[in-house]
């Protein structure tokens, strides 16, 4: 897997995948589709739109261009391939 500067390699309108932790149950994580959009608070910056919320797109967020790449990262990090959808 290649790591990119998200502000340089992604464009508004793209669909990407992220590993999202449930904020109420920290031991639950799953792969979610997210849209890359312009940040409404800082239009020159990009953001992820996920669950009706804008998240600033920073290098702290692991973004995957394909679902398969996200699944591999999930398996590497959490072990196994049993994904919760």
Q: How would you describe this structure to a colleague?
A:
The chain is an alpha+beta fold and 85 residues long. It has one domain (6-78). Helices cover 19% and strands 33% of the residues. The chain has two helices and five strands. The protein has helices at residues 6-9, 67-78; strands at 15-21, 29-38, 46-50, 53-56, 63-64. It has a five-stranded antiparallel β-sheet. A hairpin with a 7-residue loop joins strand 1 and strand 2 (29-38). The longest helix has 12 residues, at 67-78. It is globular. The model has no long low-confidence stretch (mean pLDDT 84).
Structural descriptors:
85 residues, alpha+beta, five-stranded antiparallel beta sheet, globular
Q: Helix content range of the residues, please? A: 10-25%
Tally the structural domains.
Answer: 1
SS strand fraction: 25-35%
Number of strands: 5
> What is the CA-based Rg, rounded?
13 Å
Query: How many H/I helices?
Result: 2
Q: List unreliable stretches of 5+ residues.
A: none
The N- to C-terminal Cα distance equals 23 Å
Largest sheet: 5 strands, antiparallel
Structural class: alpha+beta
- Strands of the widest sheet, in order across it, are 4-3-2-1-5
């Amino acid at each position: 897997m290649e790591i990119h500067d998200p502000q340089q390699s992604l464009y508004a309108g793209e669909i990407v995948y992220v590993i999202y932790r449930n904020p109420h149950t920290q031991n639950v994580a799953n792969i979610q589709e997210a849209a890359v959009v312009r940040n409404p608070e800082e239009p020159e910056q990009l953001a992820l739109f996920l669950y009706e919320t804008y998240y600033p797109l920073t290098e702290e967020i692991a973004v995957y261009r394909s679902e398969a790449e996200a699944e591999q990262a999930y398996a590497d990090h959490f072990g196994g391939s049993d994904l919760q959808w």
